Amino acid sequence: MLRSRPASQEALNKADERQLTASQWQLIWWRFRKHRAAMISLAVLLLFYFVALFAGFFAPRDPARVDAQFAQAPPQPLVFIDETGFHFPPIVYGYVGERDPKTLRKFYRVSADDRHQLRFFVRGDPYLILGFIESDIHFIGADDPDSPLFLLGTDLLGRDMLSRVIYGGQVSLTVGLVGVFLSLILGILLGGVSGYYGGWLDVAIQRLIEVLRSIPTIPLWLTLSAALPRNLTQLQMYFGITIILSFIGWTEVARVVRGKFMSLRNEDFILAARTIGTPRFRIIYRHMVPSFISHLIAALTLALPIMILSETALSFLGLGLRPPTISWGTLLDGTQNLNAIALTPWLLLPVVPIIITVLAFNFVGDGLRDAADPYA
Questions:
Q1: pTM (two decimals)
Q2: How many angstroms separate the CA atoms of 116 and 149, rounded?
Q3: Lesser CB count within 10 Å: N end or C end of the chain?
Q4: How far is it, in rounded angstroms, from Cα 147 to Cα 63?
Q5: Residue ranges in the chain assigned as alpha helix (H)
Q6: What are phi and psi of 96, to 5 degrees?
Q7: Do the beta carbons of residue 227 and residue 208 sit within 8 Å?
């Protein structure tokens, strides 16, 4: 016991010394690691973005491949145990399409005789890795490339829903990143000018913010989206939606930046920088912005799910991205009909990654906000 006390005291002294010599970002990371929900959510988000980056590899099929004979097919369950024993990788049973003699509606019956073994790293439909590397290797697939494999079912045209959900993440997840980046630039620029210079510039920018925030959100989205020409290409429409979301989302960032600038512009280190003749622009980006960048990052993390939900809502209403562009919003476009939901409920499955992504961003934002609090 007597020997353990000096050792423990030495360990405490080293920990205190490490805390005193650590940078601001190290302190934030150490606090953030203690937030278990935020760390799990960060891992989930990194997994989602990794899968979206290599969507062609993780998607079992080409998302645009149409199999009319399997239109509106239900999801195939994974079978690990059957009468023949345990299977890993699991097997899936094939479909037998039949029609109801009374309603003439097509339905599918599972055929236990038509079984397919799942394999890893199989060959299938060709795709491009990162847009320029040709490949046909898929993470998972059936032993027969021509056999039906629809783990999340198919849509009205017989396209694989799992592959379309994975490809849809490329657009829905990046719209949030690009939109928040543009909102950050506009928010820091206009909010910084408003808070640092004040006067008539502050009044004009604040009135503009109040006007934008007073307009109902959905009608504003619809108006700006309808203003885009309908003959735009998919890429042009993508950037158009991103600019629209940024035009709406910068006001909250500008309010935060303005408040921080007004509280910092009379601090001693800012007055000292003015005294020695430091240019105003250098004072802003070198001394003022870094002092609260951690809080800004936390606020932007909480704004990312709003961007994703905005793109989803616009595309769902038919005023955002349009087919053949694949996003989580356009995938939900076919669920506007109540009969379609009743007959093919698996078309609502794109809601699941949307909910997981929004919750994960909220948890990460909470963790960053707590970690960036200097009084914690």
A1: 0.83
A2: 9
A3: N
A4: 16
A5: 4-21, 24-33, 36-53, 55-58, 161-197, 199-214, 217-226, 234-264, 268-275, 280-282, 293-316, 328-331, 338-343, 351-371
A6: -130, 115
A7: no
Q: Other CB atoms closer than 10 Å to residue 149's CB: what's the count?
A: 24
175 closest CA partner among 40, 39, 54, 315: 315
pLDDT tens, 190-246?
888 888 888 888 899 999 988 888 888 778 777 777 777 877 777 677 778 778 778
CA 224 to chain centroid: 22
Q: How far is CA 350 from the centre of its chain?
A: 13
Residue 349 tokens read as: 């499955």
130-170 per-position pLDDT tens digit: 878 899 899 998 877 777 788 898 988 889 999 999 999 99
Query: Which residue matches tokens 């203003």?
Result: 227
Radius of gyration (Cα) for the chain, nearest Å?
27
**Number of other residues whose CB lies within 10 A of the CB of residue 245:** 26
Cβ atoms of 288 and 270 closer than 8 Å: yes
HEC-encoded secondary structure of 135-164? EEEEEEEECCCCCCCCCCCECCCCCEHHHH
Q: At what angle do helices 351-371 and 36-53 cross, to 10 degrees?
A: 130
**Tokens of residue 33, six digits:** 């690691």
Give bridge partners of residue 160 from the DSSP assignment.
Answer: 154
Counted residue by residue, the chain has a size of 376
